[in-house]
Amino acid sequence: MTEPTTTLDIWNPGWPDPFRPTVNADTDDEYADLVEALREVQEAVTRSRPTPEVAAEVATALRTAARRLRTFEVDEDTQIAGKRWEIPGKGHALAPALHIDTVTDTTVTGRVTVGRFHSGRYAMNGGVTPLIFDEILARLANSAGRPWGRTAYLNVNYRAPAPLHTELTVTAELLGQEGRKRFLRGALHHGDVLVADAEGLWVELKPEQTLNISKDAEGSDR
Ligand SMILES: CCCCCCCCCCCCCCCC(=O)SCCNC(=O)CCNC(=O)[C@H](O)C(C)(C)COP(=O)(O)OP(=O)(O)OC[C@H]1O[C@@H](n2cnc3c(N)ncnc32)[C@H](O)[C@@H]1OP(=O)(O)O
After folding, report:
1. For 1-10, 43-52, 181-190, which range has the lowest pLDDT when averaged over its residues?
2. Which domains, from first to last, does the chain contain?
3. Model confidence, pTM
4. Measured over all CA atoms, what is the biggest interatomic distance in the chain, rounded to whole angstroms?
5. Cα-based torsion angle of the residue sequence 36, 37, 43, 47 in order, rounded to the nearest 10 degrees
6. How far is ligand 1, taken at its centre, from the CA of residue 54, in Å?
7. Which of 10, 88, 92, 144 is the most core-located residue (most Cβ within 10 A)?
8. Closest Cα partner for 150 from 209, 105, 104?
9. Nearest atom in ligand 1 to 206's CA
10. What distance in Å separates the CA atoms of residue 97 and residue 115, rounded to the nearest whole number?
11. CB-hemisphere CA count at 13 Å for 159?
12. Whole-number Cα distances in Å, 180 to 18, 98, 158, 173, 203
């Protein structure tokens, strides 16, 4: 049965600035620790070649954890993942944990280290680089009081293989704005070596622009 489509207003000038969170980082934060544990699992699964018995044992343990969390399921506006700006990776385990170091209204610098989970065979996977750029550039595009904008394009140049287990520096810059269009540029360095750079366009949403979400599209195949 098809569920009715709901309309969610995603243009809200009252939303918090993604670089100036209202929640303080808490080193004893249990939710941040949960996400860190999930990252450890992702890395450990990727790095291992367990016996079938151990694979089955761990799969059972992971499903038990998933069932435990499912009893606390909330809608996407209410979930924590992706909204905890003050913890690396915003509390979401898909993208590598990005550590933000400096922020101005038009620039950001940060650091990121990827492990084998994000490997594309002894170097960072090519799909991970845009994830890092989209994370830092989208946050910059939507910070400093600028109303919500969405990524219209993100062009990435791969200049050199990005090493694993090695700190890379990430920089982002707002180049300029023309009407609703915001042009941004990003770079990823390993020391002095330029590993990748990107340029992107973020387009400010019109106040009446809304995101139509079909509840059907959220999926329930669990
Ligand atoms: C508790 C809650 C906390 C919330 C806290 C919020 C804080 C905030 C944090 C944000 C952190 C994450 C932010 C995630 C942002 C995503 O990652 S979004 C995900 C990926 N992107 C998408 O899904 C976007 C999909 N595309 C679209 O929705 C629409 O195409 C867009 C981008 C909104 C533009 O549509 P539109 O408004 O109809 O644009 P339109 O009027 O046709 O064009 C406007 C101008 O842009 C140009 N343009 C549009 N698209 C393009 C293109 N692809 N190429 C070149 N030019 C283009 C047009 O040519 C036009 O130029 P001018 O004629 O004005 O010179």
Report:
1. 1-10
2. 15-218 (3.10.129.10)
3. 0.86
4. 60
5. 150
6. 46
7. 88
8. 209
9. 37
10. 11
11. 13
12. 19, 27, 28, 17, 6
Distance of CA 30 to CAs 2, 26, 80, Å?
Answer: 37, 9, 12
Say if ligand 1 is within 6 A of residue 83 CB. yes
What does each C-alpha distance from 137 to 70, 77, 134, 185 come to in angstroms?
32, 22, 5, 7
At position 189, the amino acid (one-letter code) is: H
| Residue 110 near residue 169 (C-beta atoms within 8 A) | yes
Q: Which of 203, 204, 212 to mutate to test the pocket of ligand 1 (most atoms within 8 A of CB)?
A: 203
Centre of ligand 1 to C-alpha 153, Å, is 8
- How many C-beta neighbours within 10 Å does residue 70 have? 9
* Distance (Å, whole) CA 91 – CA 213: 23
Q: Are 147 and 135 in contact (CB under 8 A)?
A: no
Task: Name residue 214's beta-bridge partners.
Answer: 5
Per-residue burial over 93-124, b if 16 or more Cβ lie within 10 Å, else e, is: bebbbbebeebeeeebbbebebbebbbeeebb
What is the distance between the alpha carbons of residues 218 and 97, in angstroms, rounded to a whole number?
A: 25
ipTM: 0.90
Whether 181 is in the pocket of ligand 1, judged by its Cβ within 6 Å, is yes
